[in-house]
Amino acid sequence: MKSDCTYLKRMSICGLVGLGLVFSIAPAILASAAPPGRLIPATHVIFDYDVRDLDATEWLGLFQTDDGYALRPVTPSVAVVPYEPYEMEGDEPMGRVVTVANEGPQPRFLFAGLPALTAGPIVTLFDGSSGLPPGGLTLGQPDMLLGVLLAEGTPLGTQRDSYANYSLTLSRWEDGQQQRQVLVEAAETYYRVPWLFWAGDIDGDGKMDLIIDPQTNIEGSASLLQLYLSTMAAEGELVGLAAEIGYGGC
To answer: Would you say 165 and 144 are in contact if contact means Cβ atoms under 8 Å apart?
Structure first.
């Protein structure tokens, strides 16, 4: 799904060469410390331990509205379902699906523990799912460019989504300089590249925020969603890891 105001443009790697002075920022993805917030994909099957203390936390849901997108306070509820890839016959179901009481559609994601997020309209530039093979994705509106995601790598034969020296970089222009932060680096990707699930300004500071799956190896096939906020960025970073959740697999 994309809002009517979304402005997306695919760019070749060559088209990004020669943009000007570049200020490099060190990689930040996969931080060792646990992120402070919580992120749940609504209506998806997740593990039982990911729904701990739902009632003790205030949650916001990301909704698509008639005129765009918004964060709204929500009260989650949990249904018990089988989690077939991880259960043997006779086991107690360990899967959980989180929904909210809402007359209309369910939210895309639920967030908690992040003071920078508040209820109200938000700028959404991408909402869906898109793999990120080598190439560029410009994310902005006609009057506002929030950032560029640039993936680079060398194809490994004819193997799908397999590249040598893969990297995913977020860049943004400020004060005449292009600031860059490497989000993902891999010597090789194995039938898998990172995916983008949401991009926009969810914390209201006019800078890019992202939800991605950074994984580069198909083995295990589990999903790992990570929320990156500009308001969580440390010195020398564009975004910082705010929340993550792993789910799925086979």
So the answer is: no
